[in-house]
Amino acid sequence: MTTALIVVDVQLDFCEGGSMGVEGGAATASAISAFLGRSAGTYAHVVASRDYHEDPGDHFSSTPDFVDTWPPHCRLGHPGAAFHPDLDVHRLEEVFSKGRFEAAYSAFEGHASDGHHLTPWLRDRGVDAVEIVGIATDHCVRATALDAVRAGFTTTVHLDLTAGVLPGTTARARAEMAGAGVTLTGTTR
């Protein structure tokens, strides 16, 4: 099997102190970097996704419902869109930016620097399995894992390398991923 690691949205706005900070976000960035160090040579490819909003329409709201609408976050040209400094970005082969003009949760909605989506990018490189880490377990990690399964990839989520927003939504996301055939390892931060 040819396996790629997908690092989902480990950005400043999703870590403590960011506009939508998740408790444990900074620790997740550090843990992913340590994991990358220990697993050198394990993955054929290591890629990341990032929210990269310019004008995502109704995705942003001054009165967010935290289901379909959210406070402004990860805006082009703003510091919060940057990867957390504790994430080792040197191992990233490609970054898939998502949500420029619309809501986007899954890394599979993003575009590489050359405009390609994640699925054909992985297929062109012979990848048939993906492992997923990042933020947030109950939103973008969940969406990425479900899209990976739909695209036919053998999919694993390392829960110990994720951070969830809320215990209830994280538990539902774990159940939904498992029910879709995603292999879950570890426990959520």
TrEMBL record:
Pfam families cross-referenced by the UniProt entry: Isochorismatase
Alphabetized UniProt keyword annotations: Hydrolase, Metal-binding, Pyridine nucleotide biosynthesis
Signal sequence, renumbered to the chain: none
Top-level taxon of the source organism: Bacteria
Matches recorded under InterPro entries: Isochorismatase-like_dom, Isochorismatase-like_sf, Isochorismatase_Nicotinamidase
Transmembrane annotation, as ranges: none
Pathway(s) where this gene product acts: Cofactor biosynthesis; nicotinate biosynthesis; nicotinate from nicotinamide: step 1/1
Entry EC no(s): 3.5.1.19
Domain Isochorismatase-like: 3-187
Calcium keyword on record: no
The keyword Coiled coil belongs to this UniProt entry's keyword annotation: no
Family designation: Belongs to the isochorismatase family.
Name recorded for this polypeptide: nicotinamidase
Organism the protein comes from: Actinomycetospora rhizophila
